[in-house]
Design goal:
By secondary structure, this protein is an all-alpha fold. The protein has two helices and no strands. This is D-tagatose-bisphosphate aldolase, class II, non-catalytic subunit.
């Protein structure tokens, strides 16, 4: 099961360079920085 997790999670490295993916992640981080997440 661990091998499957790492092989699937490793695939993201192929998508990071794409402009739409990068912009989406930047927007996600910006949106998360503007809210307080409940920790309870």
């Amino acid at each position: 099961m661990v091998d499957i997790h790492f092989s699937l999670s490793d695939r993201i490295r192929y998508y990071w360079p794409h402009p739409r993916i990068r912009q989406s992640v930047e927007k996600l981080i910006a949106n998360l920085n503007n809210v307080t997440l409940p920790l309870d």
